[in-house]
Design brief:
By secondary structure, the protein is mainly alpha-helical. It contains eight helices and no strands. The protein starts with a helix and ends with a helix.
Amino acid sequence: MNLPNKLTVSRFVLTGLFLAAIFAGFSGNESVALVLFSAAAITDALDGRIARQRGLITNFGILMDPLADKILTCSAFIAFVELGQMEAWMVVVIVARELAITGLRLLAVSRNVVLAAEGFGKHKTISQMTTIISILVLLSYEQWGLPGKWLFGWGIAGSAHPWIWWFVGLSKWASVILTLLSGGIYLWRNREVYLSDT
């Protein structure tokens, strides 16, 4: 197994550790979850870049890299619903889109066609990871003492909420909108895969 594929597989492991941390009862668990999720996000940025630079692109990586992304982000969003940090309908939209695209890829594979991730989908993934990280920062910044409060705890125009609270709200909507747009574009561009049987 080459290095990019190892990084992809590590993202599955980090997802499990992240979930264990976010639901753990020890002090500072949200900060640990933030570190674990950030590490997983870094592997997402590295595996594809290394694969392209070193000519290590494989069918395994083409299929499993986006799947690892989906499992990581969907796990985090579902966990946030449980924690009261994410609206359930937003997560339903996100998960439904990811299931639809995964189903399309599986259908394509059954016809010996591999559908690679597209640029717009990467923007969607970045927006989702930004949302997740910002929520984790909101949950954990007070655990960092004064540095955390100086960076993330100050309000905007006298608001009772810190600026990171407003950023979380905006990033949630950005994630939902980009998720819908990227899913629609992907389904349209690859429509021959599912329309050929109709």
